[in-house]
Design a protein that fits this description.
The protein is α/β, with parallel strands linked by helices. About 35% of the residues lie in helices and about 20% in strands. Helix 3 crosses helix 11, helix 5 crosses helix 8 and helix 8 crosses helix 9. The longest helix has 25 residues. This is Glucokinase.
Length: about 325
């Protein structure tokens, strides 16, 4: 019978689910609505299990051949315990032991990690970092997140806060408040939110006009609008793009001297801006970074897109059960 891995990438509105081979080839993927009605997490996790049962039966698999279940969630995770330490987007105000709940339904290993870490693991196994044991993924979206893979395993730290790379101080003037409660985090100047922050901060101080003036006046500026205008030659938007790229290049330089990855993978909506952002990031990175630490390190765009999460969730089972424990 076919051995399979079950994978879930839990989001605030949708749960992406998948069935994978032990080699992480995707056999099936589908989505279900995220049920946030129960703050204990039980209803949501039971719904995921029920959907797995339906799909496993529909495709004539057998639960006795499930090698494990990998689950990614949008919140801080105690990896050793499988506990989510609260998840705002899921309306879980308290700790939820996802592993313990899911083990009530299945008789196989269950591994849980946060969404940024599993996205990094997905890119390491089947995406832009494939074939490397040292990969860092940076997600450039509304916020800035990331995951660090070192020597083939996710860096969690002693309490699960390892790789919270959006929250070190990069804006030393502390101009913008971060959602974490502090000011000056790199997320406030190098994410889509950061782009808007910088536009609103710099525009009143500059003397030249911009094609996005009306968007600024109407408070409708987006990172995409800024990057598109920069590509069209708007000098103000080029200035903002270079500022953002410099911050991200600085982040990449710190990552290089800390974990020395083979690949730094840029994902999230902002990464689709293309060369006008990516090439500026590379330039600043090479200017800043200790030469031996940047040797043969490549800054690349993510490949898996929305499949990074479920691929990485399945990758938890491959990494920590099949490879580490030698389970066949």
């Amino acid at each position: 019978m076919t051995k399979i891995i079950l994978a879930a990438d839990v989001g605030g509105t949708t749960c992406k689910l998948g069935i994978f081979t032990p080699e992480l080839e995707q056999l099936h993927k589908w989505s279900i609505h995220t049920d946030t009605s129960d703050s204990t997490g039980y209803t949501l996790l039971k719904g995921i299990y029920d959907s797995f049962v339906e799909k496993v039966n529909e495709n004539n698999y057998n639960f006795s051949n499930v090698l494990g279940v990998g689950i990614g969630v949008p919140g801080p995770v105690d990896f050793e315990k499988g506990t989510v330490n609260g998840a705002v987007n899921l309306y879980w105000p308290e700790k939820v032991n996802v592993r313990e709940i899911f083990e009530q339904f299945v008789d196989c290993p269950v591994y849980v990690d946060n969404d940024a870490n599993i996205a990094a693991l997905g890119e390491k196994h089947k995406g832009a970092g494939e074939g490397a044991d040292d990969v860092v993924a940076i997600t450039l979206g509304t916020g800035l997140g990331g995951g660090i893979i070192s020597n083939g395993e996710i860096v969690h730290g002693h309490n699960g806060s390892g790789a919270e790379i959006g929250h070190f101080r990069a804006d030393f003037d502390q101009r913008f408040k971060c959602n974490c409660g502090r000011s000056g985090c790199i997320e406030t100047v190098a994410s889509a939110t950061g782009v808007v922050n910088l536009v609103n901060f710099y525009y009143p101080k500059l003397t030249f006009r911009s094609s996005i003036l009306e968007l600024i006046k109407e408070n409708k500026v987006t990172a995409k609008a800024v990057f598109d205008a920069a590509k069209a030659g708007d000098q103000f938007c080029i200035f903002i793009t270079e500022k953002v790229a410099n911050y991200i290049g600085y982040l990449c330089s710190i990552i290089s001297v800390t974990s020395n990855p083979k690949y730094i993978v840029l994902g999230g909506g902002m990464s689709t801006a293309g060369p006008i952002l990516i090439e500026n990031i590379k330039t600043e990175y090479h200017n800043l970074t200790f030469t031996p630490a940047q040797f043969e390190t490549e800054i690349v765009q993510a490949k898996l897109g929305n499949d990074a999460g479920i691929t990485g969730a399945a990758g938890l089972i491959k990494t920590y059960v099949l490879d580490k424990e030698g389970v066949k």
